[in-house]
Amino acid sequence: MSVQSSLGKRLDPPGSIGVRLTFLVFWGIDAVAATLFFLVPYASELNPVTVFFYQLFGLPGVLLAAACYAAVVILIGHVLSDPMDIRFVAIVVGLYVLFAANNVLLLMYREPLPELLGLW
């Protein structure tokens, strides 16, 4: 007879490895870009939690904040049941694509994505 903990029964990772890998890639790009925001004079981080962690711990605080965001997304994805878990992570991936694209373009061209597309 095998004994499983109740936590083990509740945690169910999303079945799509591709979606999870895509999340980690774009999360990584966004984390690096957010860190660079504190090193360049022409860009600033808008997320107040990241700014708070930066004020407390310096640059490691930015990475700590990013790790906390990833942990929350992963935990929520594990708690949701299939197919909601894949949908949730896919939506988060879509958001991170926008965040990472905006952050990288802001660092490269000194203008956010909406301005580059002529939306502002």
Descriptive notes:
The protein has helices spanning 6-10, 17-37, 48-57, 59-79, 84-109, 113-116. The chain is an all-alpha fold. The radius of gyration is 17 Å and the shape is globular. The mean pLDDT is 81. The longest helix is centred in the C-terminal third of the chain and has 26 residues, at 84-109. The chain is built from 6 helices and no strands. Helix 2 packs parallel to helix 5 (84-109) and helix 3 crosses helix 4. It has one domain (15-116). It is 72% helix and 0% strand.
Terminal CA distance reads 63 Å
Please state the structural category.
mainly alpha
| Distinct helical segment count | 6
Give the number of domains. Answer: 1
Transmembrane segments: 21-40, 52-76, 88-109
Keywords: Membrane, Transmembrane, Transmembrane helix
Protein name: DUF5658 domain-containing protein
Short description:
α2 (17-37) packs antiparallel against α4 (59-79) and α2 (17-37) packs parallel to α5 (84-109).
Give the helices and strands, then pairings.
Layout: H1 6-10, H2 17-37, H3 48-57, H4 59-79, H5 84-109, H6 113-116
Helix pairs in contact: 2-4, 2-5, 3-4, 4-5
